[in-house]
UniProtKB/TrEMBL annotation:
Domain Pyruvate carboxyltransferase: 1-270
Record InterPro entries: Aldolase_TIM (IPR013785), HMGL (IPR043594), PYR_CT (IPR000891)
CDD domains per record: DRE_TIM_HMGL (cd07938)
Organism: Hymenobacter humi
Family membership noted in the UniProt record: Belongs to the HMG-CoA lyase family.
The organism's place on the tree of life at top rank: Bacteria
UniProt name for this protein: Hydroxymethylglutaryl-CoA lyase
Gene3D superfamilies listed in its UniProt record: Aldolase class I (3.20.20.70)
Length: 283
């Protein structure tokens, strides 16, 4: 099972700017753990996400010499993608393609149709530069705006991505709207329908609902999971203030429960969690 650690998602909404040196120290601790991928930063407008305005400087400070972990950066448009691909250390570019038209406009200031055009251009750019595009289907399990949602709509978006050649699609539970009853049918339908796509789960959850969500995705065949140490971060539009990122600790507990090795250096994980407690002030 692939574990993608998402400190970018944990940091981006914090009002207090985390010093660049602190970010670098934390990310370097995470790079020693052995995660498949580190969602470390984003190349977006500093006005939109001021917390991550130092992503290029952070990247320059990362020690990648002894780490097998791949780097993923989020981009919000083609301009950001063009900036990101100039950094040879970055393996993946992630783009939030929303199933909700309203959220696409709020999140990237474009229509869904415009976003799909950008995705095609980004995919071609990634192919030319040796990167891989990860398409996140935001609001993949429903939205708070009343925009149409159904498994068929998610299937249609995936079909369009497949036609472009996109090889990694992560269903994103942007506001914690998912349940086992929606997660299982989606993955059960998508995974066999698109065998050339690697499907991931970027789930937001409350402390009491994480297990059923992970189990539903795993039992439906998903083997790529995003998490964040301490469950920090999440969408400010979530109805429940306890809704945050899937805690990496819970993913590790689930792996132990089903008898799978995580492949992580657990001593390094413990040290990274101590770093996280200082960065995010949790215990």
């Amino acid at each position: 099972m692939k574990l993608i650690e998402c400190p970018r998602d944990a940091m981006q909404g914090l009002p207090e700017f985390i010093p660049t040196a602190t970010k670098i120290n934390y990310l370097n601790a995470l790079l020693k753990v052995g995660f498949d991928t580190l969602d470390f930063g984003s190349f977006v407008s500093p006005k939109a996400i001021p917390q991550l305005r130092d992503t290029a400087e952070v990247l320059a400070g990362l020690d990648l010499t002894a780490s097998k972990t791949k780097l993923l950066a989020i981009v919000a448009n083609l301009r950001g993608a063009e900036t990101a691909v100039q950094h040879p250390e970055i393996n993946y570019l992630g783009f939030p393609l929303s199933v909700s038209e309203t959220f696409q406009r709020r999140n990237t200031n474009q229509s869904t149709a415009e976003a799909l055009t950008d995705v095609a251009a980004m995919h071609e750019l990634c192919e030319r530069t040796g990167k891989t595009l990860v398409a996140y289907l935001s609001m993949g399990f429903g939205n708070p705006y009343g925009d149409a949602w159904s498994p068929e709509i998610v299937m249609d978006f995936t079909q369009q991505l497949a036609a472009m050649g996109v090889r990694i699609v992560a269903l994103s539970d942007t506001i914690g709207a998912s349940s086992a009853a929606t997660i299982a049918p989606l993955f059960s339908a998508l995974i066999p329908a698109f065998p050339h796509i690697e499907f991931g789960a970027h789930l937001h959850t409350t402390p009491t609902t994480w297990h059923e969500k992970v189990a539903a995705a795993y039992e439906a065949g998903c083997r790529r999971f995003d998490g964040a140490i301490g469950g920090i971060g999440g969408c400010p539009m979530a109805a429940d203030q306890l809704t945050g990122n899937m805690a990496t600790e819970n993913l590790l507990n689930f792996l132990a429960e089903v008898g799978l090795e995580s492949g992580l250096d657990l001593a390094a994980f413990a040290r990274a969690r101590e770093e996280a407690a200082g960065v995010f002030a949790f215990h």
